[in-house]
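Hi L.,

You mentioned the student needs an example of a multi-chain input paired with its predicted structure. This one should do, with 224 residues in total across all chains.
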Amino acid sequence: DGGITQSPKYLFRKEGQNVTLSCEQNLNHDAMYWYRQDPGQGLRLIYYSQIVNDFQKGDIAEGYSVSREKKESFPLTVTSAQKNPTAFYLCASSLQGLATEAFFGQGTRLTVV
Amino acid sequence: GESVGLHLPTLSVQEGDNSIINCAYSNSASDYFIWYKQESGKGPQFIIDIRSNMDKRQGQRVTVLLNKTVKHLSLQIAATQPGDSAVYFCAENIGGNQFYFGTGTSLTVIP
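Structure written out for the whole complex:
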């Protein structure tokens, strides 16, 4: 079954800790994206990657880091430098990265406790 | 219109009526637009898309209209059903690898 999988669905983090959110896709898509969604708001781009071993900052990259060692995987690390990390995080992928539909995962809800 | 950071606009419609959801986009160079539906606690799902060389595109019960003159996009849902209740986002692509999303509109269908 092809798709994009995010894990875990819910994640709790203590202040000062780094956490890593997983995103895996078996759609053979070149481009992958991470978005953040706050309650009642739209999606904001954190990072995106067009190809393995390459990624670019989005609008709100501060306090986050990513890697793209494999085409299928694009993990997001929320570092302790991110002052307000509680949010819903969405991963997406697209075939060409240019003017094509983006497919989304089901999201990870991160809560700082 | 919509812009990132504002609270969600809301729309309530009676079951069976038509719904119209609007979106104002910001960049005149945007050449591709998508409407997504997001149910609570889930990721957005693709509904319909349109490229800038078109002004109308129809799907099953949905129609997207694009007015490039005023940078406006709308989604029309015919015969709205309870299962249509969700948040609807428009997304614009300016030809690069970034999609810019609107704040979204929360649609509630009243049985």
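You could point out the following to them. Residues 1-6 of chain B have pLDDT under 50 and may be disordered. Residues 2 and 102 of chain B are 5 Å apart (CA to CA).

Best wishes,
N.
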